[in-house]
Amino acid sequence: MQIAEDCKGLRRSSTEKLPHAGRVLQGALLSSFPSLLRDHKYHLKTLRQCCTGEELVDDLMKLQPSLQGRLQAVGILQLLLDLEILVPVRQGSTFQDKDSSFFRFAVGAPGREESPRAGTAEDELQEAMELLALLGIEALLTSCLRKP
């Protein structure tokens, strides 16, 4: 019970920080892995400029080796989905670590607000990852409890 209350309080206090943290992670993924978004063929259809859930988890794990496992990465990506920073190509409200689940980033590209000062990008990414990792657990559990 105490953990749930702490997460609720943390979520309330970080209402403005959370979308920014998601955009920081989006920018880091796209700059570190420029070929992440590409066309995919699936069931005789071409899905334009997207990536699979499995690719996102793999690249997030490479970007942040300190993550404790794929499940923690899935929680962070579920949080990005809940924040509508990441959107499913096909219907669905849960992130899936599969090569048959396709996602793309929402239209608002990162870095359009204010550009980070030199030398702070790494610190900003680290702060963003700490916040997203904390709340990613809650997002993952909440997605499990949703009715299909």
Description:
With 148 residues, the protein is α+β, with helices and mostly antiparallel strands. Helices cover 52% and strands 14% of the residues. It contains five helices and four strands; from the N terminus they run ααββααββα. It has helices spanning 2-13, 17-32, 53-63, 70-82, 121-145, and strands at residues 38-42, 45-52, 86-88, 102-105. The chain has a four-stranded antiparallel beta sheet. The two termini are 25 Å apart. Residues 109-118 have low confidence and may be disordered.
In short:
By secondary structure, the chain is an alpha+beta fold. It has helices at residues 2-13, 17-32, 53-63, 70-82, 121-145, and strands at 38-42, 45-52, 86-88, 102-105. Strand 1 and strand 2 (45-52) form a beta hairpin.
Beta-strand content bin: 5-15%
Question: For the residues shown, what is the average pLDDT?
Answer: 83
Secondary structure tally, helices: 5
Biggest sheet descriptor: 4 strands, antiparallel
What layout of secondary structure does this protein have?
Layout: H1 2-13, H2 17-32, E1 38-42, E2 45-52, H3 53-63, H4 70-82, E3 86-88, E4 102-105, H5 121-145
Antiparallel strand pairs: 1-2, 2-4, 3-4
